[in-house]
Amino acid sequence: MEIGVSSACFYPLPVENAVDRLIALGFPKAEIFVNTESEYHPTFCKNMRKKLNDGGVDVVSLHSYTAAFESLYFFSGYSRRVNDAIDIYHRYFEAAAILGAEYFTFHGERTPGQVGFGGTSVEHHCEVLFRLAEAAKQHGIIVTQENVSWCASSDPNYIRALHDNLGDKIGFTLDLKQARRVNVPWQEYADAMGDRLLNLHISDGKAEKTSLLPGQGEFNYHQFFGYLEKIGYSNSLLIEVYSRDFSDDSEFLTAKDFLTVEMGRI
Predict the structure, then answer these.
(1) What is the domain range of residue 165?
(2) How many domains does one find in the chain?
(3) 206: which strand partners?
(4) Contacts of 135 (CB under 8 A, 6+ apart)
(5) Is residue 212 pLDDT above 60, yes or no?
(6) What CATH number does the domain containing 89 carry?
């Protein structure tokens, strides 16, 4: 398992400047968080890909700022909007492919029942996600549903329903800090994701602090890496925290050393 970093850690720094910092740190893997429409333009993405290639960084996944709108785009019950949204996401999947990503990280519907959102059935979710996955497949990309504290995916039963109904059409991203925020053990999500757990957002936490760099909290990484070994997970580990969670980039190198030691204990 190789350790990488999400460009989101450096938000609101422009994404190309975040990539410069990733390259300087020497991490071999990255998730790119695209923050506005112009950053999906093919020329912008090709320039970014060259920068990443020259810096020795491979892109694992792409994450979009439109995660904030995905509930309205896909799950409001308005079918024409779904059609339009899938057309929009074709451009995002094309951008992901240009960058060399394998996965597109997806948030989905906000917690059902919130004002302004449809709260549509799981069956409808599966129908929409099937269509979205087919669109992504045309570009060689796999949609990975992330567990998100403020979304329907905060419920492990929802995750399991997607897994059982969609099989290998989609994958999943496990985010440790999102699990902490709803006080659900990460294992419940991982078990529900099963063999379609393809991507990991890792972090640490303690008490009321749900997002810290690995090694700065109380998370049981020995147990975590033991679980990953048991299920045969061999994909990347992507550190994803917030810019407020560190004061110097060198802390990422300390976190990487910590994770390397913990993996070696298994």
Answers:
(1) 3-264
(2) 1
(3) 209
(4) 86, 89, 90, 93
(5) yes
(6) 3.20.20.150
